Amino acid sequence: MAAGIVEVFAKSGLDVVYVGRSADKVEGVRATIEKSLDKAIQRGKLEEATKAEVLGRLTGTTSLDDLANVDLVVEAIAEDLRIKTTLFENLDEICKPGAIPATTTSSLPVISLAKATNRPQDVIGMHFFNPAPIMKLVEVVSTVATAEDVAETVRALCDKVGKVAVSCGDRAGFIVNALLFPYLNDAVKMLEAHYATADDIDTAMKQGCALPMGPFELLDVVGNDVSLAIQRELYLEFREPGFAPAPLLEHLVTAGYLGRKTQRGFRDYSQR
């Protein structure tokens, strides 16, 4: 996700400083972007000269201090509130006055990150969807403290980089995940009850509702660990019994069957 967001900004003509935990991570981001650009060239969607321009706008570093002069920071680290909070405390000390610290969290409360800073009015959510270079939507999430001019700036930036921005309040799941994940959770419960197979459920939703992927295909792409974290946040905030994560989802995560990224989730991808 982080590499995709960097690519989106750089392809739109913006200079980007990105921070990785190690030199290998920094190089990995650049390599991922270069591979993505090469694919675009092969498909006739990008010129070779444009690739060089995009890569020339990238500055990779392992030091947060190199973010001191940027106008916007988009955090895209692990979906862990403790880790994110520590980062926002650091960004508050490093970033210049007026800089906007944004988070790409898909489920955690943005206000919890805002209150870790001395600039809660500047903190906002920018929830990109994966893969970021392809998916058009960005949920712009304002907390009770976010200044309206900050939200306006972020919406304008989304438009500049070719994204469709929707505005929403700071509650679990925002718009898309608040509607999507109860549906995915219900699909897992249906599978648990032996009501239908994963293949038949996926086929039914694709052919009956014209969805590009069935629920289990989507869960394995998103990652069952990420899906479980989002479902837990929905349940903790709304306390709806139906939002409680399906036990099968819990068991798959415990077993390490996280989806395509581990070659096994609701399906086995090791031989594909």
Describe the structure.
The chain is of the alpha/beta class and 272 residues long. It has 3 domains: 1-62, no CATH class; 63-170, 3-Layer(aba) Sandwich (Rossmann fold); 176-262, N-(1-d-carboxylethyl)-l-norvaline Dehydrogenase, domain 2 (Orthogonal Bundle). It has helices at residues 2-11, 23-42, 48-56, 81-94, 110-114, 148-160, 176-192, 198-209, 215-222, 224-238, 247-255, and strands at residues 16-19, 58-61, 72-75, 100-103, 124-128, 137-142, 164-169. The strands form 2 sheets. A 5-stranded mixed β-sheet has the order 3-4-5-6-7. The chain has a two-stranded parallel ribbon with strand order 1-2. Helix 1 (2-11) crosses helix 2 (23-42) and helix 7 (176-192) packs across helix 10 (224-238). The longest helix has 20 residues, at 23-42. The two termini are 23 Å apart. The mean pLDDT is 96.
